Amino acid sequence: MIQPFQITRGPRVRYGRGEAAFVGEEAKALGMKRPMLLTDPDLSAAGVLEPIIEGMKKAGVDFALYDKAEPNPSDESIPLTRAFYESHGCLGIIAVGGGSAIDTAKAMGTLLSNGGKISDYYGVNKPPKRVPLFIAVPTTAGTGSEVTRASIITDTERKVKAGIHSEMLYADLAVVDPALLARLPRPVAAGALMDALTHAIESAGSKYSGPWTEAMCMRAIGLIGQHARRFVADPADPEASGAVSLASTLAGASFTNTGLGIVHALTHPYFMTFGGHHGTINAILLAPVMRFNLPAMREKYAQMAPLLADPSTDPRDPGAAEAAIEGVRALGRDVGIAPSFRAYCGWSDEPLDMMAREAAKSATVQTNPVFAGPAEMKRLYLECAG
Ligand SMILES: [Fe+2]
């Protein structure tokens, strides 16, 4: 029997190649006045914003460009973006970028609507009021942030990643245009898509997973399994970029309902200690964590096997779940993910206990299918250390 479930209200989604040209029209229709176009310096310099800017001009929408969004935005960067928004008399936010630009927009929007400081809103359902009018335009196939209610901020004082999780953070509209992925550097393309794959696999394993979100996860996993290698070889490939950007948005739409698992719990302390790219760190952890979760996930992993390994794999085969895990390992290898932490941003045993304790505090422990405390986290780190 199908168990009861609920689905959250998310942003309207406009998906398709060339759809970024309609961002201006949409901004106007939403009632934005001089919106803040928020992005990062690399995207601005690479000309990724061109179709959006052209569309804004065509629609007669004046805007204020802010291209200083930080990667892994810190609590200190948010008041600066807010000051820019207020001093330019903006009404509306158009965030263009990976998770960092979109998460910056959500955090800034939270301060604009609610005042106070960003740490007041860490946790679940803290901001009482919605962010201002907001369009999110992803330029990677990874975070799914355009459709999620989360903003992840680096807390500089406590040296941890903190999350604001609230429906008040949803964008009004997500414009998902695969053509914007064309100029992604390959390592970023690979890391981001492994983040999307992690979202889909962790969401499918969540205690809150149900048939609605599972359908999105399985579709996302299938699209990534089939197109990831081709996408990383050429991020401009229309078919492959179309498939992985849809997968990323589907995975985001799923995990905003279900939460994630302990890959994400383990990734944040590693990042805070050694640095690196969020998706790439996830990719190193994903197969070992799948093996850890296997006792609770055998049936679901078996369903994933034809999507991630040999398409002719029969999910009823006794080795199917293991084949899915090996499929994830092979995919990481093929798209150029480092085999271990030591081979990526480095490793030392010294901060291990601290990292394991931090990981065990993550909210994603609650939604992971198998319990993991500090001892289990430590074992998983060591397995990935290399
Ligand atoms: Fe992620």
Description:
There is one protein chain. The chain is α/β, with parallel strands linked by helices and 386 residues long. Helices cover 52% and strands 10% of the residues. The structure holds fe (ii) ion (FE2).
Query: What's the rounded overall pLDDT mean?
Result: 96
Fill in the CATH topology of the largest domain: Dehydroquinate synthase-like, alpha domain
Task: Please tell me the total number of domains.
Answer: 2
General shape: globular
Straight-line distance between termini: 44 Å
**How would you characterize the largest beta sheet?**
6 strands, parallel
**Structural class of the secondary elements?**
alpha/beta
Task: Lay out the secondary structure.
Elements: E1 12-15, H1 23-30, E2 36-38, H2 41-46, H3 50-58, E3 64-66, H4 77-87, E4 93-97, H5 99-114, E5 123-124, E6 134-138, E7 150-155, E8 160-165, E9 173-176, H6 186-205, H7 211-233, H8 238-258, H9 262-274, H10 278-308, H11 320-334, H12 352-361, H13 364-367, H14 374-385
Parallel strand pairs: 1-9, 2-3, 2-4, 4-6, 5-8, 6-9
Antiparallel strand pairs: 7-8
Helix pairs in contact: 1-3, 4-5, 6-7, 6-8, 6-10, 7-8, 7-10, 9-10, 9-12, 10-11, 10-14, 12-14
The structure holds fe (ii) ion.
Residues 143, 195, 199, 264, 278, 282 line the site of fe (ii) ion (FE2).
